[in-house]
Amino acid sequence: EQDFKNIKEEILKLKSEKNAVILAHHYQSMAVKEISDYVGDSLELSKIAANIDANYVVFCGVHFMAESAKILSPEKRIFLPNIEAGCPMADMVTREKLEEMKAEFPEAKVVSYVNSSAEVKSISDICCTSSNAVKIVNSIDAKEIIFVPDQNLGAYVSSLCPDKTIHLWRGFCPTHHRVSKFDVESVRLKYPNAKLYVHPECRPEVLEFADFIGSTAQIIKACETSEEHTFIIGTEQGVVDSLSVALPDKKFYIMDASMVCKNMKRTRLSDVLLSLKEEYGEIEVDEKVAVNARKAIFDMIERS
Ligand code: 13P
Ligand code: SF4
């Protein structure tokens, strides 16, 4: 307990000495979220990263998020406190494989989910996140679209954009994709009066049961404004943890106990301290790759 208090104090002290800003995704642990200046979903954090007035940014999330922040603000020093924190879904599409798909559908425009590498973004027309994917796809002046890498978000967008022909990549998020309709049926038997709020990275068979579908920030907002009292949350455990603290009069249950992203949970307070103290985990992006990736992310921010 004392160690925990000391480490927190040291982080806060170094943070103000260095004029650093700490960003955290909703899926981080409560301990990390508590010492952060901003907590948000992918879109909110990328907007903050683009406009932040600080030269030293510690990004508590996974690699593609810190990389996107560096692409948006190349003059700033961006740190990923635990460099092992990657996103398995982002690794499911490579530049080479995407080039092959582009050759197969030469008329198609490429929309890449921000959960992708800088290399993949650099050969995409535009990025999207889970909170703006439908809007972005609808805003594109082409009928044919290649959507990478999440097959579930892609299928969800496809169902809401009937005028588009969307070619899906077969990537998926292990944390959301592992839940099946049978798991949903069993949790609903346990909490029959609860509303089911689900992230679009879940399988279509799971989304079918949902009372609300949205990004992490959209789910949080919807729970805040809802008149309902009990919710089953179909996204990563960190969202349930934040909601339980923020809205103590309401009840939140995770859709399935397996919904914990190992990579998001790699970042500990000791890692945050190291990145402030020893300048550990600095992210660099080759400017040749960053140029086009930047256009794809900025274009997304502008349209959302
Ligand atoms: P959002 O932050 O857009 O909800 O995405 C969830 C996610 O999986 C981030 O890795
Ligand atoms: Fe990647 Fe899924 Fe973890 Fe998000 S929750 S970082 S998409 S593995």
Question: Would you mind describing this structure in some detail?
Answer:
It is a single chain. The chain is built from 15 helices and 12 strands. The protein folds into 3 domains: 2-87 and 264-284, 3-Layer(aba) Sandwich (Rossmann fold); 97-172, 3-Layer(aba) Sandwich (Rossmann fold), CATH 3.40.50; 176-254, Rossmann fold. Helix 6 links the parallel strand 5 (109-113) and strand 6 (126-128). The chain is an alpha/beta fold. It has helices at residues 2-18, 30-34, 42-51, 63-72, 95-104, 118-122, 133-138, 151-160, 174-177, 181-190, 204-207, 216-225, 237-246, 269-277, 287-303, and strands at residues 20-25, 38-40, 56-60, 77-79, 109-113, 126-128, 144-148, 165-168, 195-198, 212-213, 230-234, 251-254. The N and C termini lie far apart (43 Å). Helix 1 (2-18) runs parallel beside helix 14. A 4-stranded parallel sheet has the order 2-1-3-4, sandwiched between helices. Strands 6-5-7-8 form a 4-stranded parallel sheet, with helices on both faces. The protein binds 1,3-dihydroxyacetonephosphate (13P) and iron/sulfur cluster. The site of iron/sulfur cluster has 13 residues, from helix 9. It catalyses: iminosuccinate + dihydroxyacetone phosphate = quinolinate + phosphate + 2 H2O + H(+). Keywords: 4Fe-4S, Cytoplasm, Iron, Iron-sulfur, Metal-binding, Pyridine nucleotide biosynthesis, Transferase.
